[in-house]
Design a protein that fits this description.
Number of domains: 1
Structural class: alpha/beta
Number of strands: 19
Bound molecules: zinc ion
GO biological process, one term: purine nucleobase catabolic process
CATH topology: TIM Barrel
Helix content: 25-40%
Organism: Bifidobacterium moukalabense DSM 27321
Distance between the termini: 23 Å
Largest sheet: 9 strands, mixed
Strand content: 15-25%
Family: Belongs to the metallo-dependent hydrolases superfamily. DHOase family. Class I DHOase subfamily.
GO cellular component, one term: cytoplasm
GO molecular function: allantoinase activity; dihydroorotase activity; metal ion binding
Number of helices: 16
CATH architecture: Alpha-Beta Barrel
Radius of gyration: 22 Å
CATH superfamily: Metal-dependent hydrolases
Length: 472
C-alpha cells in the first residue's frame, strides 16, 4: 500500500514527478501544489525529558518536530539532571525518571528512550553533552564520561557506529562557557573532534533588551555587548585552537558584523539565528508580554533588520528554533520571574517563509537550505537528494507521460536513509497553538497569518507524520 503524490515538485531542480511513499493505506493525491525537499533539521531544541516532562517530553517534543517538517533534532543538555555523562544519584531532581527506566546517566536514558518507554518516536535525534558538570560552569565535563557515545569513538563495549542517538556536540546552552574552564572545554572539544555550541551571553541582571522598551517597562535591560563579548572571545579561541565554534541564536547587528569578518578570514565559525529574531523586535514585549521574553532577548528593530541581512548575505548558516517549552503559568510570572524562551518547531517554517521569502529577502530554495541542508552539514548528516535518488532509482511511469519520472521510495537502494519533507510553499494558514502537538503553548505567534506549511515528513522512506487530506 502506498501514498502516491501526483505531480509533486522537486525543491531544487523544479522537476515534476510522482512520488510513491509506502503507507498503511492506499491514497492518490493531486500534489501539484506540493514540493518535496530534504527533511528539516534543528540543532537546537529543549525537550525537558528527563526532569521537566510537565513542560515537554521526548514524545510530545518529537511529535511537534515531525509536525513542523523536521526529521532530525539535536537535544540540548539542560535536562534535569543535566546531560553531562555523570551517573545520576537517587534523590537528585529528575533522577527517578532515569533510574526507574533502568539507566544511570541521562545520555543512556535518552539513548534507550524508545525501548524504555515502549514508544516509537517520529523523528531522529542526536544528543548534545554539557560543557561543564551539572551545566554549572565550575568544572569541565570529563570526556571519559561521554566519549563512548560519539559516532566512531566506540569503546567500553559500546558499538558506537550503531548508536541511534550519538553525542555530536558540546554546549552549556543557557549560558556561555565560563572563563575559568574555557581552556579545558576547548581542549575537550578538540580531543573529541566535536564542535562547541555557544550561547553567547554573560550577564547577571537584566530580563529584556536594554533600550527604550526596557525603560518604558521599568525592567532591567541586557546590553547588546553581552553577546558581542562572548562572540569575540570565542572567535579568538577558534583561531588559536582550530576548534569549530557554532554560535547559537545570534541576535545583534554588532555580533553579525564580527562573525562576518571572522568567516571572511576562514576561521572555523558557523552561526544560527532563530525565527523570532527575524520576525520580532523588543517592541513585541509591549504586545505579547513574557511570550516575547527569551535569552538572548529580542533586540531593537535595527538588530532585527541586521539579522535579516545576515540571513540574506549568507553570514547565517542555518535557522534553528531554540524550541523552549514552558507552561503558561510559568510564563505568567512577569518579566522578572518568567522563564526565558518560546516554542518554535511547529510554526518556524511558516513564520520564516512569511518574513524572509514573502518579504523578498531570500528564495524558497534558500529557506529550505537554511532549515535542512545547512543544519545537516553542521550536524554531520548526509541529506537525501531527491534528484540523485531519481537518477539512481526512477522508472518511467507506465501509461503516463513519457517525460515525467516516478520515485518509488519502496524500491530505492537504501530506503532507511531517505528523510524528506513535503511542503506547500504557498499555503496560507493561521498559527493556532491549541492545535500544536507540543505540550507547551508559549509562543507569541498564535493568531499569526503565515505562508508555507509542512504537510508530511518521511523518515527512512516511511511516512512519519502527515496532515495531507486531514484536519490538522
Ligand atoms: Zn541559548
Ligand atoms: Zn537553547
Amino acid at each position: 500500500m502506498a501514498l502516491i503524490l501526483h505531480d509533486i515538485k522537486v525543491w531544487n531542480t523544479g522537476e515534476v514527478i510522482d512520488l510513491i511513499v509506502p503507507s498503511d493505506t492506499d491514497e492518490t493525491v493531486d500534489a501539484s501544489a506540493m514540493t518535496i525537499a530534504p527533511g528539516f533539521e534543528d540543532p537546537h531544541v529543549h525537550f525537558r525529558d528527563p526532569g521537566q516532562t510537565y513542560k515537554e517530553s521526548m514524545i510530545s517534543g518529537c511529535a511537534a518536530a515531525a509536525s513542523g517538517g523536521y526529521t532530525n533534532v539535536l537535544i540540548m543538555p539542560n535536562t534535569v539532571p543535566a546531560m553531562d555523562g555523570v551517573k545520576v544519584e537517587a534523590g537528585q531532581p529528575g533522577a527517578s525518571e532515569v533510574l526507574d527506566a533502568g539507566y544511570d546517566t541521562v545520555i543512556d536514558y535518552l539513548q534507550h528512550y524508545e525501548a524504555a518507554h515502549g514508544v516509537k518516536l517520529p523523528v531522529r535525534y542526536d544528543l548534545c553533552v554539557c560543557a561543564s558538570k551539572g551545566r554549572a560552569g565550575r568544572e569541565a565535563t570529563e570526556p571519559a564520561d561521554w566519549i563512548g557515545y560519539l559516532p566512531g569513538h566506540g569503546d567500553a563495549g559500546k558499538d558506537a557506529y550503531q548508536l541511534a542517538h550519538p553525542v555530536t556536540a558540546i554546549s552549556d546552552d543557557g549560558s556561555a562557557v565560563t572563563p575559568g574552564i574555557l581552556d579545558q572545554v576547548f581542549a575537550n572539544v578538540k580531543e573529541s573532534g566535536l564542535y562547541l555550541i555557544e550561547h553567547c551571553e554573560h550577564h547577571d541582571t537584566g530580563a529584556v533588551n536594554e533600550g527604550p522598551v526596557s525603560r518604558r517597562l521599568g525592567v532591567p535591560g541586557i546590553p547588546e555587548d553581552t553577546e558581542l563579548k562572548i562572540v569575540e572571545r570565542d572567535i579568538e579561541m577558534a583561531r588559536t585552537t582550530g576548534v569549530h565554534v557554532h554560535f547559537q541564536h545570534v541576535s545583534t547587528a554588532i555580533s553579525f558584523e564580527t562573525i562576518r569578518r571572522a568567516k571572511a578570514e576562514g576561521l572555523p565559525i558557523t552561526c544560527e539565528t532563530a525565527p523570532h529574531y527575524i520576525a520580532l523586535c523588543d517592541e513585541a514585549l509591549l504586545e505579547y508580554g513574557t511570550l516575547a521574553k527569551m535569552n538572548p532577548p529580542l533586540r531593537s528593530e535595527a538588530d532585527r533588520r541586521a539579522t535579516i541581512t545576515a540571513v540574506a548575505d549568507g553570514t547565517v548558516d542555518l535557522l534553528a528554533t531554540d524550541h523552549a517549552p514552558h507552561t503558561m503559568e510559568e510564563k505568567g510570572l512577569g518579566f522578572l520571574d518568567a522563564p526565558n524562551g518560546i516554542i518554535g518547531l511547529e510554526c518556524a517554517y511558516g513564520v520564516c517563509h512569511k518574513v524572509l521569502v514573502d518579504g523578498g529577502h531570500i528564495s524558497d530554495e534558500r529557506l529550505i537550505e537554511l532549515m535542512s541542508t545547512g543544519p545537516a552539514e553542521l550536524m554531520g548528516h548526509d541529506k537525501t537528494d531527491a534528484a540523485a535518488l531519481l537518477d539512481e532509482n526512477a522508472d518511467a511511469v507506465p501509461g503516463d507521460s513519457d517525460t515525467k519520472r516516478v520515485l518509488d521510495l519502496g524500491k530505492v537502494t537504501h530506503p532507511e536513509n531517505v528523510d524528506l519533507v513535503v511542503l506547500d510553499t504557498a499555503e496560507e494558514w493561521t498559527v493556532d497553538p491549541e492545535r500544536f502537538h507540543s505540550s507547551a503553548r508559549n509562543t507569541p505567534f498564535g493568531g499569526w497569518q503565515v505562508t508555507g506549511r509542512p504537510l508530511a515528513t518521511i523518515i527512512g522512506s516511511k511516512l512519519a507524520f502527515s496532515r495531507i487530506n486531514k484536519e490538522d
